Structures are given as structure tokens and as C-alpha cells.
Amino acid sequence: MIMAGLGLGLVATVVASLCIGAVKIPLGDVVAALVGDGLAAKLGLPDNAAYDKVFWQLRMPRILLGFLVGGALSVAGVLMQGMFRNPLADPALIGASSGGALGAVFVIVLANRIFPDIPQLSDLRLLPLAAFAGALLVTGIVQRLSNVGGYTAVATLLLVGVAINALANSVIGLATFLSTDAQLRALSFWTLGSLGGADWRVVSLCAPFCLALIVLAPIWGGALNAIALGEAEAGHLGFSVEKVKMILIVLTAAGVGASVAFTGIILFVGLVVPHLMRTMIGPDHRWLIPGAALLGAIVLIGSDTLARTLFAPAEIPIGVITAGFGTPFFLFMLLRQRRRALWG
Amino acid sequence: MLTARSLTFSVAGKTLVDSVNLEVRAGEMVALLGPNGAGKSTLLKMLCGQSRPTSGSVLFENRELGQWPPRELARRRAVLPQSSAVPFEFTALEIVLLGRSPHGDASACGDMARRAMEKTESLHLADRTVTTLSGGEMQRVQLARVLVQIGLDGGAPRCLMLDEPISNLDPAHQHSALQIARELAGDGAAVLVVLHDLNLAAQYATRLVLMKAGRIVTDGTPAEVLTEERIGEVFGVRATVVRNPRCDAPAVFVGL
Lengths: 344, 256
Known about the structure:
The complex is a heterodimer of chains A (344) and B (256).
Chain A: H1 2-19, H2 27-35, H3 37-43, H4 52-83, H5 96-114, H6 126-146, E1 147-148, E2 151-152, H7 154-178, H8 181-188, H9 200-216, H10 221-227, H11 231-236, H12 241-263, H13 269-281, H14 285-309, H15 318-343
Antiparallel strand pairs in A: 1-2
Chain B: E1 2-11, E2 14-24, E3 29-33, H1 40-47, E4 55-60, E5 63-64, H2 70-76, E6 77-80, H3 92-98, H4 110-119, H5 135-150, E7 159-163, H6 171-186, E8 190-194, H7 198-204, E9 207-212, E10 215-220, H8 222-225, H9 228-235, E11 238-243, E12 250-255
Parallel strand pairs in B: 3-8, 3-9, 6-7, 7-8
Antiparallel strand pairs in B: 1-2, 1-4, 4-5, 9-10, 11-12
């Protein structure tokens, strides 16, 4: 039921996002372009070639990127929260996003400074791979450092996350200092994130990594349910917990790394969407993961539509929207959890 | 059914469990007793495969623990943790049904889960979210979960390990939890339970194993193990042992 609702919501959001923008495209033309020329003619829908470029070259890739990134960040949030057994974990909070950013910065700026003889290192196609490696490295370190006797020490987890984020920001700052004007523009969106760089090439580079996370993650939904009982308990239920954790960290690093590489660090989506989803369909990870993927896509495509239309033709960074809505929500959740700790 | 062969566990030059041999047979309920730091929990962790022994081996059904496919082992052997918090708002029934995950038939086991919850007097909690349960309520839900995991009705060889299962329970629920474990043993399961209460152990266990400083001191029926000298020597207390007027078991009174 709720899944069907989310599916419909996603379709509605996509269509609305296709219509709205600096150039307004009438609904009829959007539907015509979506169903294809032949069927559109049969239905008597308008065929206005004037909108084709905006539709296919600007909006469509941007929406697909929003779908991939929103889905990946939200699923990553579910996985991190389930794995760390803490509803406040988030791919940005624990350093996966910064790790991805580090890897990406290396490709964009540092590679041709440090290794000027190997221009291949600055190839755009390396971007998601480098971000993946960076995210994997950092998430792995954080996970290792915060694990005490099979349980995640939450205070350590957050402190390590803060430290890693600070380190990443300093490296990004250094890269900004060293970069040329063109590189600077490529870097500037990292602080708050943007889908502005979307084109078909970016979508095709991003898709395998994000889809791997979104499509494969539900396989380990049952294992995450068991891990909620505790890692040892999940082991007694027949799950190979260490293996599951390793797989989930690799998948998360892939999705978050590729997302960060092309859209910057988009805060709070990975934290808030899993929570909203949990209040809607409960904590069962087998449903939570696909649900969060759909809701995350809706939230990110919606936020991006706002980001590019509120002050059109100027764009505000998408992070302004997600953090603007996400922060109050995060604080509300903290309060609720504290209240429960006091009176529960 | 469960066999420990000269199990030793050392960490940082300290030997916590020292060449322990132990056999828990089908139909037995063995209580592991001993003062704090005697090595009971360390031994239990090795017996359930949670930690690796420094030397020695653990066999379940004559097969080394490491040789068992994890899921197959989980269908026959369940472990009840000392206490555990669940961070998400699962209902109690959902937690109990997690016990079926090694069998992959949770959706068909609603009835079994309810029967197990009825047994552990937690059926009225079925729809409550576990984040709102008290320690004792959660303990009873977890007990229902491990019962469901190895199945309520006999069948294949089964083993249940419980680590201080009654620490959060009131007297009535302490007795009913141990009664359930005893009935399970009566049905042919092997039950191993870590306990602190000597009298409850004497009342429900078929065999007592007394540990001190990483070694087994004695192993036998309650009447054989619980003598005044031995309790004094192992626990460092003065003990008087009489016959429990409620059942045919020794009853222990201690003081300093």
C-alpha cells in the first residue's frame, strides 16, 4: 500500500519537476515526451520540438541524478543506522561523505599537481572510483575505531566522524587554495551540494555505483533486522555478521562516494529519510530499504526543484534546502529520544 | 550433544578458562555456577562460538562448531543473551519471529510465536514496541524468541544456552523461566544455563558444574555439589545446607 503510494508520489514529483523551471513546460508536452512520439500522436498530445533540448538535455538527466543520489543517500542512511544500531548514524556524520569528497578532490585538483606526468589520473571517469575508494577507506577506519567488543561505541563513533570531517575539510580547503578558476568552480559546490552538474555522462558514470547500493541492499534486510538484537545475537541466529558488515560498508561507500563525487555533500537526506520511512512502515529493514530509496528520490528531486526555481534563474545550493528542513527535524528527533531516555 | 575438550582461553597473559572438559547431554539441564570472575561467561562464549578458544575445541553433535554451516547450527541451537536493548521500534511479536530467521519461515510461524509468548507470559506484550518494555518484560520476550528459534515441539537434537536468564525477573517469573528450560530438557534438549542463585540451580538443574578461577571444581548432582565445605571454599562464605522443604533438593543458606 505505502509502497504503491510512494511509487505514485515519485511519478508525480518527477512530472512536476519536469514541468517547473526557468522555462515552463506544459504538462501535455511533458507527457508527450515521456510516452514517445508515436503514442503521443495517437493520443493527440502536442508535439512541441522547442522544449526538447530543455527536456532531454537539462531536466531529464538532472532528475535521474536526483533519483540516483537521493535513493543512494537514503539507503546508505538505513544501512548505517542498522549496522551501527543507532538511529542517529548518517553517511555524512560518520565520514563516508567526506571520504568520498577527499577521493574526488584528489582527482580534480591534486592529481595533476602531484603527478603532472600522468594526465590520466585527472580523468572524469576516475571520479566515482576515487570517491568510492575514499569513502571506503574512511568508513572502514571509523567502523574499526568505534567498535568495542562487538558493539559500536556511539560517542567514539561521532568523535571519529567529527575528526574525519575536519580533516577532509582542511584537505578540500587546501585544494581550493591550489586550484585554478575552473577547478574552483568544480569544487565550490562541495560545501552544500548541487545537482547542477548533471548531464547524461554524469548520470551514466554515477548510475552503476548508486544502483548497486539501491538494488542489492535489500538482500541484507533480514540480516539487519537480526543485527538490531545485537551483533552476537545475529551471529547466534546464523548470520555471518562480519561478512554482512563488510558488504554493506562496500555498498555504502560505492553509492555515497559516487553521489558525493558528482553532487557534493548533501546533508541530512541520509538521516531524515530513513526516520520518516520508519514512522511510516515500521523498522523492518526488508521494507525500509526500498521505501527509503523511493522517499529519498522524492525528497531530493523535490528539493532540487525548489533549489532551481525559488530564485530562478539563479540556483541556490540544494544543501540549503535539505539542511533547512532537515536540521529542525534532526533536533526534534534528538529531543524525542532524550525524552524517552528520561521517562522510558 | 555439546562437548568441550580441554578448552583454554587466555588474554594478555591471564588464563581465564583453564583446560575445561565438559559434556552436556540430551535431556540434561546443566547449571554453571561460580563466583564472579570464575570464567563462566568466558566459557559460555566459547561454547556458543562467540569467541575462539586459545586452545581446545567445542563439538556440537560430534562436529566442531566451526564445521557447522551457521544457519544449520542456528536452527538447532539458540543462545539467550544476558540482556539486550533493541534500538528500533520493533513489536515484541516481530522480535520473537526473528527467531525463525535461520529457518526462513517467519511468515508461517505466527501461531508458534504466540504459543511461545504465552509460555513465557509475554503474549499480552505482543503488539507493544520493544523500546517501551521493562528489563523483565524484554527478557521474557527474548526467551520466547530463543524457544521459537529451536522449535517448540521436539524433533531434531536441540540445545539452548542461557546466560543469567533470570537476572531481571521477579521470583514468579524466575521460576517459570527455569521451569520452561527444565521442560525443554525433559523433551530431550540439552540445556546449559549460567546462574548465580544456588537454590534455584539446585531446584531446577539436573546437574551442577561449579567453577573457580577458570577451572571446574566439581560436576555432579545438586546434592553432590552443594556441600557446606565446598560452598565455603569456592564462594568464600559460611554455608548451611538443609533439605528444601518444597522439593527434593538441597537448600543453601549463606552468611559471612
